[in-house]
Fold this sequence. Notes:
By secondary structure, chain A is α/β, with parallel strands linked by helices. Chain A has helices at residues 4-12, 29-42, 60-63, 96-99, 111-123, 142-148, 166-179, 223-243; strands at 16-22, 47-51, 73-77, 80-84, 87-88, 91-95, 131-135, 155-160, 184-189, 194-195, 202-203, 217-218. Chain A has a single domain, classed as Rossmann fold, CATH 3.40.50.300.
Amino acid sequence: LSLFPKIRENLSQIPVKIAVMSGKGGVGKTTVCAWLALSLKKLGFKVAVFDADFTGPNIAYAIKEKVVSLKAKAVGTEDNYTIIPPEVDGIKVVSSSMILDEGKALIWRGPLKFKLFQELLAFSDLRDVDILLIDLPPGTGDESLNLAQMIPDAKVIIVYQPATLAVEDVKRSMDFAKTLNLEILAIVENFSYAVCPKCGEKFDIFDGAKLKVEPDLKLPILKEKAFEELFDFVQKKVIPRLKK
Amino acid sequence: LSLFPKIRENLSQIPVKIAVMSGKGGVGKTTVCAWLALSLKKLGFKVAVFDADFTGPNIAYAIKEKVVSLKAKAVGTEDNYTIIPPEVDGIKVVSSSMILDEGKALIWRGPLKFKLFQELLAFSDLRDVDILLIDLPPGTGDESLNLAQMIPDAKVIIVYQPATLAVEDVKRSMDFAKTLNLEILAIVENFSYAVCPKCGEKFDIFDGAKLKVEPDLKLPILKEKAFEELFDFVQKKVIPRLKK
Ligand SMILES: Nc1ncnc2c1ncn2[C@@H]1O[C@H](COP(=O)(O)OP(=O)(O)O)[C@@H](O)[C@H]1O
Ligand SMILES: Nc1ncnc2c1ncn2[C@@H]1O[C@H](COP(=O)(O)OP(=O)(O)O)[C@@H](O)[C@H]1O
Ligand SMILES: [Zn+2]
């Protein structure tokens, strides 16, 4: 009994979907996804985030450091139910770690996790959401592929670090997006440079810096500054691209 | 027809096996694994590396930036063959990306990749190897579990970054090792601090710094310096621990 028709129906009511991808873990993909959500909310949009990155902790912690409660509510009957996602800083968060009780995180490994992702996408209450952000797992493996196929009209933002072989990573992400016919909205270089707190010197920390692709945005290794620069970028570059 | 007996037999001739783990990608696990191999070789041991991290590029590039040839040779007959692993800087590298021709990297996704890993461990010529390092995939998922079960007498080195929730990552890696009865040899904090090239100031770049566990070694974000410190650590702390 495929949930794909239900997923398609549930997601069709959301005008914009943005999937955030990376070629490998640790480049700040989840953080950039959370910052995109916060920026879009600040600019007046109703935002939801689908946490599909099972390799990392709940994206809620990247949205707001001290998160009080991550409980989702299920309403309705067993064969006709709706999941009400919790809100963190005004952003709806759809994540499997909210459905399951503490200590049950393991039961959704393997093929079961996709069953759970499908249920979340099919039955979460996403009425009234303008933009859905999807935090994909890192890489372009089977998991990312399966998830991307559930959101065939998503636009893509690629995040990378200017480290060795970064160009290959980005190329792989771009090929992945093109194969699935997903429009690439922006390429973001994170951890672009460090800033000395003493003398203000800006310097590279990765030697792959000379292998850089031409990104749309370069973020420094300084969370407050990086967030401001991403917010500006969303306001001045992303929104206009989305509007056309 | 299980390859486990053949794997056990092939690996039993190697006195020391060290698996390098991480709670998530991007913390420098592959780089630390390569540096461990280079340090041990420098100290006179015959070293082999098993590249089991299919999420990243071949560990050979972390051993030596410009790698000329990564071709493994197969000798013998179809039902009784041996794989001769190529050497990079005097270190034998066992990796699936060396067996397959260019463009065939995709055929080993899913369950096939484990079949390939098993073949590599069963049939690679590892006679005369003193220490086998294993670069595990990041995380403590099914893949890491399957691989760890092929090397039940390995010792473990855990690598992490002092970022948010790092303590949970390390704890998860430690629980994983303990569940499998693998001895933890060392816990290494990588990207511990940046060094300003202008004024020499040392500073943290991650805010999770206050959540640190007590690691055995802290490496700066500066490859030459980090390698020297890791070499010292191997010489003064790791070798004595291995000898007892
Ligand atoms: N621009 C930045 N400056 C400082 N720290 C950052 C920046 N971007 C991400 N981080 C930190 O780096 C770590 C890894 O980021 P994360 O979003 O978890 O990466 P990924 O999702 O790619 O694995 C986190 O601790 C995060 O807070
Ligand atoms: N101590 C360090 N200083 C500077 N760069 C580092 C250091 N450790 C790792 N790197 C770089 O960081 C990037 C990620 O490291 P990698 O070993 O691929 O991580 P992982 O295997 O955990 O995904 C690589 O470009 C690597 O060269
Ligand atoms: Zn300085």
